[in-house]
Amino acid sequence: MTDILVPDYGHSTLAEVLGSIASAIDPQTFTPEGNALDLPIARRYVLVMVDGLGHELLRTNRRCAPYLAGLLNGARSLTSAVPSTTATSLTTLGTGLVPGIHGMVGYSFRALGSIINALAWDERLDPLTFQPHQTWFERMTAAGIMTSTVSIADFERSGLTRAGLRGCSTFRGFTDEEDSTDRITAVVESSRAKESSFVYTYERRLDHVGHGRGVASHEWASVLHQIDNWIEQLRASLDPSTVLLITGDHGMVDVPKKHQIVIEDDPQLAGDLDLIGGEGRLRQLYTTTPRAVAQRWAKVMGERAVVCTRAEAIERGWFGHVGELAHDRIGDVLVAVQEDWAVMTLSKPKELNLVGQHASLTSVEMSVPLLIDAGDH
Fold first, then answer.
1. Tens of pLDDT along 158-197?
2. Among 26, 188, 266, 319, which has the minimal tally of Cβ within 10 Å of its Cβ?
3. Is there a domain that residue 61 lies in?
4. pTM of the predicted model over 0.70
5. Residues 132 and 168 in one domain
6. Overall domain count for the chain
7. 289 and 207 together in one domain
């Protein structure tokens, strides 16, 4: 049975989060209709983005995270964007737009005639023109809401931040990701800086340990427990009237070595490819013969993947409405891998060491929670 969860763009995805927050903080400026997720009205909001926190993963591991698990009953169930990967999800969150409009269509995809890595960035690309649309940080700041980002210091001037998360009033960077005290202090102080405020803070350790050790590992469970502890401490430190939200950008699937399919090992897969983008769970293939390539891949992969052309993916709504900016960045052929398989390439040898992977449209990768601790509301 095919496991494909297409985002319900406009209703219950990461694209609706910041617009709903803005409307909850200032319903006169942003109108109540903008609060698609029906968040409580409050003057101050804090959002914790936990990279790799999938909804199903949290439910399965609820004993490791008692505070977060306690918020599951009142949580909103959201979907990531497509692909279910950080660069796409965070840009979707920041802009409130679908990938087909903001153009950050994956972890790696075609631009400048080659494959670019959206996390590492390419200095030839101007983030403001590569993703030209206004972010919700810019909109809220213009409306007089104090917007702050508390994140890893090196990210302040990164290409991804400047493309999809730009426009906050202040950026407070930290270098020690294990030290929650400084982070909590920065978030609380930023939240109290003005009567109306929004603070966004990013936590990446769960994703890192998932890639390296897998989501079934003791190490992953331990990191989840640590994150649960500091977020609970954050809640206790915030003013009771401040609403705290926690979400994730994607889930993750452990891929055993024996289920890694290497493109270069099979001539039927490797033939007629100009460029290989995406990642193991969702490959984006660039070719001048998309129909022939898609047919061969579908035959080889069988039930292990859903294979379609760009036109078919667009028709199915994977990327939402697709504009001119994003169209040619999307692969000519998309390979959405199922179950615990992955399609690897020798051109990215380090990726062969990944245990946990994501980017496909399975429910475990696509479903993310929106946990709400409304304080005294």
1. 999 999 999 999 999 999 999 999 999 999 999 999 999 9
2. 266
3. yes
4. yes
5. yes
6. 2
7. no
